[in-house]
Amino acid sequence: MEDLQEDRRIGPAEAARVCDILCMHGYPMYCSWAAGPTDAALLGFLAAVTRQLGGRDVLFAEFGAATRSDDRQADRLWGDRLLDEKVAGEYIERAFATVHAAGTVGGLVWCFADYAERIWSEPPLDDAPHERHFGVWRPDGEPKPAASALGRWSGRERAAPPASAWSGDLDPARFYDAPLQTLERLYGAGLGDRLARSVL
Predict the structure, then answer these.
(1) Does residue 64 fall inside a structural domain?
(2) Which of 1, 6, 22, 24 makes the best surface tag, with the fewest CB within 10 Å?
(3) Distance between CA atoms of 159 and 106, rounded to whole angstroms?
(4) CB–CB of 134/65 below 8 Å?
(5) 64 is in which domain, residue-wise?
(6) Parallel, antiparallel, or unpaired for β 21-25 and 106-109?
(7) Is residue 144 in a domain?
(8) 60 bridge partner residues
(9) Does residue 98 form part of some domain?
(10) For residue 50, what are the CA distances in angstroms to 9, 43, 45, 105, 160?
Protein backbone atom coordinates (compact mmCIF):
# COMPACT_ATOMS: atom_id res chain seq x y z
CA MET A 1 0.00 0.00 0.00
CA GLU A 2 2.87 2.37 0.79
CA ASP A 3 4.19 1.96 -2.76
CA LEU A 4 0.99 3.60 -3.97
CA GLN A 5 0.80 6.30 -1.29
CA GLU A 6 4.42 7.43 -1.73
CA ASP A 7 6.73 7.73 -4.71
CA ARG A 8 9.42 5.22 -3.80
CA ARG A 9 10.60 4.98 -7.42
CA ILE A 10 9.35 1.40 -7.64
CA GLY A 11 5.63 1.38 -8.18
CA PRO A 12 3.43 -0.95 -10.22
CA ALA A 13 4.71 0.31 -13.59
CA GLU A 14 8.33 -0.32 -12.64
CA ALA A 15 7.56 -3.76 -11.19
CA ALA A 16 5.56 -4.66 -14.32
CA ARG A 17 8.73 -4.39 -16.40
CA VAL A 18 9.99 -7.62 -14.81
CA CYS A 19 6.89 -9.20 -13.24
CA ASP A 20 3.98 -10.92 -14.95
CA ILE A 21 1.82 -10.58 -11.84
CA LEU A 22 1.91 -7.64 -9.45
CA CYS A 23 1.39 -8.04 -5.71
CA MET A 24 -0.37 -5.72 -3.30
CA HIS A 25 -0.69 -5.69 0.47
CA GLY A 26 -3.46 -3.76 2.17
CA TYR A 27 -4.62 -3.20 5.72
CA PRO A 28 -7.40 -0.71 6.48
CA MET A 29 -6.11 -0.49 10.08
CA TYR A 30 -2.97 1.25 8.77
CA CYS A 31 -4.74 3.51 6.27
CA SER A 32 -5.76 6.96 7.51
CA TRP A 33 -8.16 7.48 4.60
CA ALA A 34 -9.98 4.14 4.98
CA ALA A 35 -13.41 4.04 6.59
CA GLY A 36 -12.05 2.02 9.53
CA PRO A 37 -10.23 -1.22 10.33
CA THR A 38 -12.86 -3.38 8.57
CA ASP A 39 -13.10 -1.36 5.34
CA ALA A 40 -12.88 -4.31 2.93
CA ALA A 41 -13.66 -2.07 -0.07
CA LEU A 42 -10.16 -0.63 0.30
CA LEU A 43 -8.64 -3.90 -0.93
CA GLY A 44 -10.55 -3.93 -4.21
CA PHE A 45 -9.65 -0.30 -4.73
CA LEU A 46 -5.94 -0.94 -4.16
CA ALA A 47 -6.04 -3.92 -6.53
CA ALA A 48 -7.72 -1.86 -9.24
CA VAL A 49 -5.27 1.04 -8.88
CA THR A 50 -2.33 -1.38 -9.01
CA ARG A 51 -3.71 -3.01 -12.16
CA GLN A 52 -4.37 0.38 -13.78
CA LEU A 53 -0.88 1.71 -13.01
CA GLY A 54 1.01 -1.47 -13.89
CA GLY A 55 -1.09 -2.98 -16.64
CA ARG A 56 -0.76 -6.47 -15.14
CA ASP A 57 -2.85 -8.93 -13.17
CA VAL A 58 -2.73 -8.52 -9.39
CA LEU A 59 -2.31 -11.03 -6.58
CA PHE A 60 -3.51 -9.58 -3.30
CA ALA A 61 -0.55 -11.07 -1.48
CA GLU A 62 -1.33 -9.94 2.05
CA PHE A 63 -4.34 -8.81 4.05
CA GLY A 64 -5.69 -9.65 7.46
CA ALA A 65 -6.89 -8.40 10.82
CA ALA A 66 -5.34 -8.32 14.27
CA THR A 67 -7.62 -9.64 16.99
CA ARG A 68 -8.07 -8.98 20.69
CA SER A 69 -6.67 -11.39 23.24
CA ASP A 70 -5.41 -11.25 26.81
CA ASP A 71 -2.47 -9.11 25.66
CA ARG A 72 -2.63 -5.90 27.70
CA GLN A 73 0.25 -4.26 25.83
CA ALA A 74 -1.38 -4.77 22.43
CA ASP A 75 -4.71 -3.58 23.77
CA ARG A 76 -3.17 -0.46 25.32
CA LEU A 77 -1.29 0.55 22.15
CA TRP A 78 -3.65 -0.71 19.42
CA GLY A 79 -6.97 -1.34 21.18
CA ASP A 80 -9.10 0.79 18.87
CA ARG A 81 -7.86 -1.17 15.83
CA LEU A 82 -7.92 -4.68 17.28
CA LEU A 83 -11.03 -6.68 16.36
CA ASP A 84 -13.02 -9.31 18.16
CA GLU A 85 -12.42 -12.68 16.49
CA LYS A 86 -15.98 -12.84 15.10
CA VAL A 87 -15.71 -9.35 13.58
CA ALA A 88 -12.30 -10.22 12.12
CA GLY A 89 -13.80 -13.36 10.55
CA GLU A 90 -16.58 -11.31 8.97
CA TYR A 91 -14.01 -8.84 7.67
CA ILE A 92 -11.89 -11.64 6.12
CA GLU A 93 -15.03 -12.98 4.39
CA ARG A 94 -15.82 -9.53 2.93
CA ALA A 95 -12.17 -9.00 2.03
CA PHE A 96 -12.10 -12.23 0.01
CA ALA A 97 -15.31 -11.15 -1.73
CA THR A 98 -13.75 -7.79 -2.54
CA VAL A 99 -10.46 -9.07 -3.95
CA HIS A 100 -12.38 -11.71 -5.92
CA ALA A 101 -14.79 -9.14 -7.39
CA ALA A 102 -11.80 -6.94 -8.27
CA GLY A 103 -10.54 -9.69 -10.58
CA THR A 104 -7.35 -10.51 -8.72
CA VAL A 105 -5.64 -13.83 -9.34
CA GLY A 106 -6.02 -14.60 -5.63
CA GLY A 107 -5.67 -13.42 -2.08
CA LEU A 108 -3.43 -14.48 0.80
CA VAL A 109 -4.35 -13.90 4.42
CA TRP A 110 -1.71 -12.87 6.94
CA CYS A 111 -0.98 -15.03 8.81
CA PHE A 112 -1.20 -18.71 9.76
CA ALA A 113 -1.33 -18.44 13.56
CA ASP A 114 -0.96 -15.99 16.40
CA TYR A 115 2.48 -15.99 17.96
CA ALA A 116 3.04 -17.93 21.17
CA GLU A 117 3.41 -15.70 24.24
CA ARG A 118 6.89 -17.08 24.98
CA ILE A 119 8.31 -15.11 22.00
CA TRP A 120 6.43 -11.83 22.50
CA SER A 121 9.58 -10.24 23.95
CA GLU A 122 11.55 -10.89 20.74
CA PRO A 123 11.76 -8.48 17.78
CA PRO A 124 9.60 -7.39 16.07
CA LEU A 125 6.86 -8.55 18.43
CA ASP A 126 8.32 -6.61 21.35
CA ASP A 127 7.78 -3.24 19.65
CA ALA A 128 4.71 -4.14 17.57
CA PRO A 129 2.45 -6.07 19.94
CA HIS A 130 -0.54 -6.05 17.59
CA GLU A 131 1.50 -8.18 15.16
CA ARG A 132 1.22 -11.03 17.65
CA HIS A 133 -2.47 -11.48 16.83
CA PHE A 134 -2.98 -11.57 13.05
CA GLY A 135 -3.28 -15.36 12.97
CA VAL A 136 -6.19 -17.21 11.43
CA TRP A 137 -5.51 -19.84 14.09
CA ARG A 138 -4.75 -19.31 17.77
CA PRO A 139 -1.31 -20.33 19.10
CA ASP A 140 -2.79 -23.58 20.43
CA GLY A 141 -3.90 -24.59 16.93
CA GLU A 142 -7.60 -23.83 17.39
CA PRO A 143 -9.11 -22.01 14.40
CA LYS A 144 -10.51 -18.54 14.74
CA PRO A 145 -13.74 -17.71 12.86
CA ALA A 146 -11.66 -16.36 9.95
CA ALA A 147 -10.47 -19.90 9.17
CA SER A 148 -13.87 -20.87 7.78
CA ALA A 149 -13.61 -18.08 5.18
CA LEU A 150 -10.49 -19.75 3.79
CA GLY A 151 -12.46 -22.90 3.04
CA ARG A 152 -15.38 -21.04 1.49
CA TRP A 153 -13.16 -19.06 -0.87
CA SER A 154 -10.63 -21.75 -1.75
CA GLY A 155 -10.77 -22.97 -5.33
CA ARG A 156 -13.22 -20.38 -6.65
CA GLU A 157 -12.97 -19.55 -10.29
CA ARG A 158 -11.43 -16.16 -10.93
CA ALA A 159 -13.74 -13.27 -11.74
CA ALA A 160 -12.92 -11.11 -14.72
CA PRO A 161 -11.31 -7.80 -13.74
CA PRO A 162 -13.94 -5.06 -14.02
CA ALA A 163 -13.47 -2.21 -16.45
CA SER A 164 -11.64 0.73 -14.94
CA ALA A 165 -14.19 3.10 -13.43
CA TRP A 166 -11.81 6.05 -13.51
CA SER A 167 -10.31 6.07 -16.99
CA GLY A 168 -10.53 9.85 -17.07
CA ASP A 169 -9.63 10.37 -13.41
CA LEU A 170 -6.35 8.45 -13.11
CA ASP A 171 -3.47 9.37 -15.36
CA PRO A 172 -0.74 6.76 -14.77
CA ALA A 173 1.90 9.15 -16.10
CA ARG A 174 1.00 11.80 -13.50
CA PHE A 175 -0.16 9.62 -10.60
CA TYR A 176 3.05 10.03 -8.58
CA ASP A 177 2.89 13.83 -8.80
CA ALA A 178 0.51 13.61 -5.80
CA PRO A 179 -0.16 9.92 -5.09
CA LEU A 180 -1.71 10.13 -1.64
CA GLN A 181 -3.98 13.00 -2.60
CA THR A 182 -5.06 11.14 -5.75
CA LEU A 183 -5.87 7.99 -3.78
CA GLU A 184 -7.79 9.94 -1.16
CA ARG A 185 -9.73 11.85 -3.82
CA LEU A 186 -10.70 8.78 -5.83
CA TYR A 187 -11.56 6.68 -2.79
CA GLY A 188 -13.39 9.52 -1.10
CA ALA A 189 -15.53 9.98 -4.19
CA GLY A 190 -17.00 6.55 -3.55
CA LEU A 191 -14.90 4.74 -6.09
CA GLY A 192 -13.89 2.11 -3.56
CA ASP A 193 -17.50 1.10 -2.95
CA ARG A 194 -18.22 0.76 -6.66
CA LEU A 195 -15.13 -1.40 -7.16
CA ALA A 196 -15.93 -3.70 -4.26
CA ARG A 197 -19.10 -5.29 -5.59
CA SER A 198 -19.56 -8.38 -3.49
CA VAL A 199 -20.12 -11.73 -5.16
CA LEU A 200 -21.58 -13.36 -2.04
Answers:
(1) yes
(2) 6
(3) 10
(4) yes
(5) 2-195
(6) unpaired
(7) yes
(8) 24, 107
(9) yes
(10) 14, 11, 9, 13, 15
